[in-house]
Structure formats: structure tokens, C-alpha cells
Design goal:
Blueprint (H helix, E strand, L loop, with lengths): L1 H16 L2 H39 L5 H18 L7 H6 L5 H4 L6 H4 L7 H22 L1 H22 L9 H20 L8 H19 L3 H21 L10 H22 L6 H26 L5 H24 L9 H36 L7 H37 L1
Amino acid sequence: MAWILFSAAVLFLAYRATPQEEQARLLRIVEGMGRRIKDEAAQNRRACEPFNNALRARTRWVLLTPSLVTLNVTIFVFMFFASGALTEPTSLVAWGGNLGPRTTNAEWWRLVTALFVHAGLLHLVATTIGLVPVGIILERLVGWFAVATVYFAAGVIAGLVNLSSSPLSLTVGPSGAVFGLYGLLLASASWDQLRSSNVKIPWPVLKRLAPSVSVFVLFGLTGDSLAIKSEFTAFVTGFACGVVVARCAGDRKPATPLVSATMAATLAIAIVAASLLGGITDVRPQIEGMVALENRTAGAYQVAVDGFRKGRLTSEALAQLIDRTIVPEFEAVDTHLKALHGVPREQARLLADAEQYLQLRSESWRLRAEVLRNDKIQSGRNAERGQPAIEENSRVRAEARHTKSMLMSGKAESTERASLEALYRITR
């Protein structure tokens, strides 16, 4: 959408930079084009009257399309006045947005509720423009039940495609559902060309729909490739449903059992697809927990070290704090991470780095505890140096233990540095 605004600004500046004579000529051209468009629109309107009258005779009142628009607007108004920014992911999720770790863990209803959540006023306006003209025609042509079946089937299938393609991306809006209606419209128009019927969708009607459809499609194309993929799948879904339910739409509305069978078939496909996506796990909350664990254990150990320096704790007490409290916490988190299932492919490296951090950090703490105990033994041996009979042997053993302690201390520090580097990689 930004490039559209940029293009408009460039055109305006170019217009302002042209001489007045050129501006006047451009205005005359634009006025002429406007008159031609107005005349053609009037001509199209007259050409569409027989078709519109036939649809009104078949279905006097349309209820589904206005209800969908009313529900969209109502939810948007509530979201606008609710606490939290309208476009904040947490707000969109709270209102029913489609997010893999939430939807695939016993919240499948989000595939439907996400169809009524919009990320902004422009999103809502584009949806309304794209939905209303096509929805009214189809509702009168094939009935509200068929339109509702295609609308929700295409929307749910599009949501499943989003979950499969990018499980951690938050998606909202009924773009897939509206594209499904476009597929249904194409199927209906195709059947009109293949068989004779009492009510055919004339070319002028399709021309009148072109502006609203173009606006909606252009808005959809401003999204990422994920949205385009799901919208195309929804369009194909709508077309496939339309091939079944709209075969005799030119003569009569499709029979309820036929529409029900189509709905059951698409529901079965959706259930099978959902079963393959169940239990998506986002490891980012676990990463946040590891950062908190690092800060908590490092802080607790520092407090204990201060007590040791003041003579309130012994080196053995420090080692026991590590063995009985700190290391078991890291091992518990490591066991929990290894038990996770459904981690998306894009988080596989993140999970591997997290496991590496936990293993290295646990090892660094164990080495630190061993250094503390070795220092305690060294202190005891130093106390024996006053006894002449064993002083020489004690000195040799003390030097060996001191060398071992220094090596172990260096290994503990290097392991700690490696673990913190791994933690930095997963939190940056």
C-alpha cells in the first residue's frame, strides 16, 4: 500500500510542476475520460437490469452479506475502543487472530474468528469493498447457504495454509474467504458458458464488479508471499466448490443436500489438514525463561560468594549450592526442551543453540563446584605443613592439586564463556 501512496504523491508533484497550459489540457482529458466512464457505467447499468431483476425475483432479500459486514464493523469498533493498540499482535491474538502455537493447541476456533478480525481501518474498508458486490450477487444466485459454505470453507483452508507455510506468523482478516467467493463466481460464470440456463451472468455485470474486485486484489497483493499463497488456495477452493454447487445455478438454487455434502467434504479435508499440523510449539517463551534462569542463578551464586568472602559460608557450602540447586534447575529445563514436540523448522537452529547453552552452562557450574572442593582440600593440606615428617610430600601434593585446580578453573571459565555466547546467539 505504501507504493500506491508514493505513486500518487509523485503524480501530484509532477502535475504541480507542469505549466498551466499543460495542466488545463490534462484536466480536459480527465474530464473527457470521466464523462466516458459515466456514460459507460450508465449503459452497463441498463444492460444489467434484466439480470438484476431476475435475481431479485429469485431472492428478494439478502441477509448473509450484510450480516458479515455488520459483524466485521461491530468487532472492529469494539477493538478500536478496547485497551491496547489496534495493530498490536497481542490485541489481535486476544480478539481471535490465527497464530500457530495457539490455534493448533486446542484453539481451532481461531480459524473462524480470525475471519472477523481486521488489522486496521484500511483493511476493513478493502474487505467491505471486495465482499459486498460479489456477495450480494452470489447470495441471490446460489443462496445464502452455498455462499456461507464457500466463504467459511475457503477462509478456514486459507488459515490452514498460513499455519503450514509460516506457523509463527499471525494472520487476520477474511481475504481467503473473499477470494473463495471469487472462485465461486468464476465457477458460476463458467457453467453459464457451458450449458444453457434461464439466468446467466452477463458480461456487463462482470465489468461492474471489476473495480471493487481490483481494489481488493491490489490490497491483497501488497501483502507478503504467504498471503498470496493462501489467497490462491482459497480461490481454488471456492472454484472447486462452485463446480459442484453452481452447476444448475442458472435455473435454480443448489439443493440443500448437495451444499451440505460439499460442506462435509471440505470439513473433512480441513480436519485431515489440521491433524497434520497439531501441536505447534513456539520455543521463544522457553528462551525468555532461560534468560531469567541465568540471571536468577548467577545472582543467587553471587550473594553466596559475598557470604563466603565475609566468612559466613564455606567453599563446601558454595559447591553444595551449585550441586543441589543450580545444576538441577538447568537439567530440568534441558529435559523440558528435549521433550518439546512440534517445533517449527525455522526454530530448529534456535532450539539446538538453546540445548547447547544449557549443556555448556551445566558443565561450567559442575567444574566450578569441583574447583571449590579442590581448593578446600588444598587449604587442608596447607594446614599440615607445620609437621616436618610429611611437609615435603604435602608440598608436592599441594603443587599438583594447585595445577589441577588452575586447569579446572580455566576450563570452567572457558565453558562458561561458550555457554554465554550461545545464550547471546539465541537472544539477539
